[in-house]
């Protein structure tokens, strides 16, 4: 009888130890998920800063370039991709800091990666060139208004290619941010500029619409490449998707500079730059650097969230540019610009709140599954 009682006590003790071990394991798992959760939001915040600061500052420098004597569309296209060498050291830094993937995913072949890099490089060069033609032949207000349509194109491509789920908050975000950009464009005073021939206006209109659609397609295809082909979870993946396509796009621009004859007038353009030769070179260099920072933020948001989210943040930057223009170019800040900025922030917060709800739901499902298991 005593032996039976002792055996029961031993079994109870062993069960208690097992339960305590399971609880300790669950606490460690929850702690790990919590750290991963905060790390994810930190990366999202960092990518948003990169995108908004890079895009806004690069746009202002582009305006500075044109306002003080620059007029080469191929050079304007060139600087959007030519800054990629500054990212090459980061490739070596992050090369060995790769996450261990327990699912043993099959890596894409070098041939597949080469095709992807060349394809996206050519697409990027063509898109940048179409934007340059649009800005050359259209008033800034009309150009900005058409560019805002890229968000609508992105919705379509996200639905067809990325299986994007549209909730009320996401639709609200897309509509509000688009209205914000459109309000800013309609309010622009640049439509009072000199009239252009109808033929050039049509070319500018078609190029800008095509560029907006191509840019939206570019973002959606990047998301497909990340999730279905590359299947990697490392930061060096983002760097490679920026460096190698940018190299291809830069090569295309160099060919364009020589083929168009623009390269022969660059020296005269630099000599005639109103702020001086040093200012001319620094404007181009910093424009190239800032576009790379912008693209890292853009690719990071596609990698971590979706192409639609990255486009929402990119469109959010349109109303932010006038605010910086007030600070650096002493532009007039009026009610319409303030309203456009507030609408953009509203749309941005709607999308972020939707991501917060999705994240909370995923965490709740994980916790429920852990509770059921025990």
Would you mind describing this structure in some detail?
Belongs to the purine permeases (TC 2.A.7.14) family. The chain is mainly α. The chain has one domain. Helix content is 80%, strand content 0%. It has 13 helices and no strands. Helix 1 (2-67) crosses helix 12 and helix 4 crosses helix 9. Residues 23-35, 99-104 and 189-194 have low confidence and may be disordered.
Secondary structure: elements and pairs:
Elements: H1 2-67, H2 73-78, H3 88-93, H4 110-137, H5 140-147, H6 150-161, H7 168-187, H8 198-230, H9 235-260, H10 266-271, H11 277-304, H12 307-328, H13 335-373
Q: Approximately what portion of the residues adopt beta-strand conformation?
A: under 5%
Number of strands: 0
Report the total helices: 13
Distance between the termini: 32 Å
Name the helix and strand elements from N-terminus to C-terminus, one letter apiece.
Answer: HHHHHHHHHHHHH
How many domains? The number is 1
Mean pLDDT: 75
Overall structural class, as computed from helix and strand content, comes to: mainly alpha
Helix content: over 70%
Radius of gyration from CA coordinates: 26 Å
Anisotropy-based shape: globular
- Major sheet characteristics: none
Low-confidence stretches: 23-35, 99-104, 189-194
Which properties best describe this structure?
membrane, PUP_plant, 80% helix, transport, 374 residues, 13 helices, mainly alpha, Probable purine permease, purine nucleobase transmembrane transporter activity, single chain
Concise description?
This is Probable purine permease. The protein is 80% helix and 0% strand.
